Amino acid sequence: MKLLIKNGRVIDPSTGTDETLDILITEGKIASLNSRIEAPDAEVIDASRLVVAPGFIDMHVHLREPGEEHKEDIASASQAAARGGFTTICAMPNTKPPNDNRGVTEYLVSEAKKRAVVNIFPIAAITRGLAGQELTDMADLGEAGAVAFSDDGQPVANSLVLRRALEYSRFLGKLIIDHCEDKNLTEDGVMHEGEMAYRLGLKGMPAAAEEIVIARDLILAELTRSRLHLAHLSTKGGLELLRQAKKKGLDVSAEVTPHHLVLTDESLASYNTNFKVNPPLRSEEHRRALVEGLKDGTIDIIATDHAPHTEEEKDVELDRAPFGLIGLETAVPLILDRFVQKNVISLERFVQLMATKPAELLGLKNKGRIAVGADADLTLLNLRKEFTVDVNHFASKSRNCPFSGWKLKGMAVMTIVGGKIVYQL
Amino acid sequence: MQEKIKARVMDATKIRRVLHRLTTEILERNRNLKNLVIVGLRTRGIYLGKRIAALIKELERVEIPVGVLDITLYRDDFSELETQHMVQKTEIPFPVAKKDVLLVDDVLFTGRTIRAAMDGLFDLGRPKTIQLLVLIDRGHRELPIRADYVGKVLPTSRKELVQVRLKEVDGTDEVLITEPAGK
Amino acid sequence: MSPEFSPQFRHYHLLGIEDLDAAEIMTILDTATSMAEISEREIKKVPTLRGKTVVNLFFEPSTRTRSSFELAAKRLSADIVNFSLQASSVVKGESLKDTVRNLEAMATDALVIRHSCSGAPHYIASFCRSHVINAGDGSHEHPTQALLDAFTIRQFKKRLKGLKVVIVGDILHSRVARSNLYLLRKLGAEVVLCGPPSLVPPEFSFWGAKIEYKLEEALEGADVIMMLRIQKERQKANFFPSVREYRNLYCLTETRFKLAKKDAIIMHPGPINRGIEIDSCLADSVQSVILKQVANGIAVRMAVLYLLLGGKEREAAD
């Protein structure tokens, strides 16, 4: 099956490419990349006026399978990803049962082959049962297909355990991703601790709870000379610590979610549970600092932390609602509309955040770039397309989206995975 | 609301003479002044009631107590009002049970205000008798209510307004017939 | 416009003092003045809300607020039903939304809600047809308490503007403190918040309050002293080390009371922890208006019911 994408504006930060090129895809790989390709037996896609980027990679998705398939499953999450312009997603291990053993990892890999329309790579647990005490068989899980390790949902609270995890994983070449939260400081909290929380009478989760753990984690990364990735960074202080660590030459990285870049704790004034998320939406001061981090390169990637919950679970008093919002189908338009269109970051930087850097962090050598021999994972963007977010058309099983009704400009109009068109507008 | 004055039916002199006449009628019919109490309906009924009490004091040297009744909570059109009425205080610092109560209001129209006033009075006690004094009776009764003492009978059309203005509230004594200015 | 008309109260729900302006607050207080007279009659009833149904939906225990609303409704001739759910509906698994919907199916006009979650009345107002009155939501607001407190202050001090009001206790967790702070500031009073630093966050000064950690300093020249309840659970959570220490520092004693103005009044939303928040002799003294607060609660709640339920049925705002 040959696919010829003609006249698209090809943007690939890994090679510094930004020009109009044709791309020929054969058997799931990029066969040719040139200004005018002729391939009479290929299916032609007219990408004029579109941007062609390496397929976007979301390193932080909660599939909810196994165990909570009513919220989301491998198939629906992959369709949501495709609709959102993602060609690869990574599944966090806090499922039921958790992904801390080879059985679950293999299940995910084989089910994804059968039912997923995009690439799904598992992120396996750092500790057994996500209990933070004993390390999992990381090499074994890596062999089964895990691309990184995380206990997301909780921090690895015991510093000694995290130290050992960092040391042990060094020879695997795979990232340890920490969810940085001091659970004692955030106990019973439901939103960011600040003036807004006091006003609404809701228990707050102080920024310090994240910053303290980030500080500890960075010191351990230095001690163990290993790589470390910070999940869903949300604080000004945490960002600054990361900046200093990078200056020192540590191999550390971080991700930020679209909602932390766009929303603040003011959204909670309506007590709408679609704004209840962990880490919480913070005050404007923090949001602005994160945007600066996006611009100056301190932040490496954007990841959605796509966290589906059913309507029944979210349609309750704020205190009782679970944390989380979905993000696969809104991430790309949000960042395009709020930051690229407004010239806060360049289109090239955007692609770097969405594809180049995630591929690099995960060590996926054939993804995140458009070059002969690379996997034919591509995202086609229409920067001019305006639309209104309508949750009723989402492919996700869940509807806990805070951006319902937002008018955005710019979106993915076609997603190609392994040379196959898995989504088109 | 712009309004058009159609007629000035009473001036200060007329009002004074009418109140004088009404007072003598009251005295004629109420032998036992000691049992008489006056209850004025907000707002202008209060001042009319006070003036009558002052006249009785002048003529008979008897002090008749005057109380204030607010009927907002007894209205029968409560659930249909576009804007709510401000509830004011009812101040009747004397018992009404077994008394001859003289209710005083400025204008008698449909009769509903008086019905509400009687309900309000009954919640405070069981009067011996209730008599009604109004300055103007403008007709268009919707309930079987009649006044015992009437200052002036004024035939009006439904869309007209009768406005009693008193010095204590409006700075001048007069009675006007007005019409809302149509467009 | 004729003074008999009060266009100042245009709300469909009463969710918090935050949503009211000074004119609306005055309308409620003035209406309450007229309502108070009804409780002094022999027949304590007027027919105004005849045929209306009010439901007390209390998810937290309460004797005085609930019975206060009950009497207020009854004095206006409304029908009232009491539901004290506490944890039972949660135990049975029924969601808050279903509980409310089931009640509404019985053709209710107003729901009086007390809930331990801040924002619960707002959540309920988003889907129910009836008028919602917040009788206390978590740590967020308790508007009728603040209104009856203001009514009581006005009764004794004839005004609110320019008065020095000191609120003492667990400010952080207190919905009474928040509602009172908003109301008093809207009406021009000076508010001082006093308690241990762990229970009085500096952010409260953003809303116009002065913060004082020493009770003696706070009480200087106070016109009104409002003592709040201290909950023993807060001690377990290390907000203060012990009840003994709290009492030593924050109990309103006779000695401390002398620092206030000579005619200062003492208030407390109740129930009182005698000897911890306030000395018994002061709680029972002539300057304590605590029982007046309770009586005024009924008049204020009658005013709120009247203003919300009276008049043509308005469309519930979004």
Could you walk me through the main structural features you see in this protein, from its secondary elements to its overall organization?
Helices cover 30% and strands 24% of the residues of chain A. With 425 residues, chain A is an alpha/beta fold. In chain A, helix 4 crosses helix 6 and helix 6 (207-224) runs parallel beside helix 7 (236-247). Chain B is α/β, with parallel strands linked by helices and 183 residues long. Chain B contains four helices and eight strands, in the order E-H-E-H-E-E-H-E-E-E-H-E. The longest helix of chain B is centred in the first third of the chain and has 18 residues, at 12-29. Chain C is of the alpha/beta class and 318 residues long. Chain C is built from 13 helices and nine strands. In chain C, strands 7-6-5-8-9 form a five-stranded parallel sheet. In chain C, strands 2-1-3-4 form a four-stranded parallel sheet. The model of chain C has no long low-confidence stretch (mean pLDDT 90). The B-C interface holds B 42-43, 70, 72-74, 78-91, 119-120, 123-125 and C 3-7, 9, 27, 30-31, 33-35, 37-38, 41-43, 45-48, 76, 303, 306-307, 310-313.
Write the layout of secondary structure elements.
The complex is a heterotrimer of chains A (425), B (183) and C (318).
Chain A: E1 2-12, E2 17-26, E3 29-34, E4 43-46, E5 51-54, E6 56-61, H1 74-83, E7 86-91, H2 102-115, E8 119-124, H3 138-144, E9 148-150, H4 159-169, E10 175-178, E11 191-192, H5 195-200, E12 204-205, H6 207-224, E13 228-230, H7 236-247, E14 252-256, H8 258-262, H9 284-296, E15 301-302, H10 311-314, H11 331-340, H12 347-362, E16 378-388, E17 407-417, E18 420-424
Parallel strand pairs in A: 1-4, 1-5, 6-7, 7-8, 8-9, 9-10, 10-13, 11-12, 13-14, 14-15
Antiparallel strand pairs in A: 1-2, 2-3, 5-16, 16-17, 17-18
Chain B: E1 3-10, H1 12-29, E2 36-41, H2 44-60, E3 66-69, E4 100-108, H3 112-124, E5 129-137, E6 149-153, E7 161-165, H4 167-170, E8 174-180
Parallel strand pairs in B: 2-3, 2-4, 4-5, 5-6
Antiparallel strand pairs in B: 1-8, 7-8
Helix pairs in contact in B: 1-2
Chain C: H1 22-38, E1 53-58, H2 64-75, E2 79-84, H3 88-92, H4 96-104, E3 110-115, H5 120-125, E4 131-137, H6 143-157, E5 164-168, H7 175-186, E6 190-194, E7 209-212, H8 215-219, E8 224-227, H9 232-236, H10 243-250, H11 254-257, E9 265-267, H12 280-283, H13 290-309
Parallel strand pairs in C: 1-2, 1-3, 3-4, 5-6, 5-8, 6-7, 8-9
Helix pairs in contact in C: 1-6, 1-13, 2-13, 6-7, 6-13
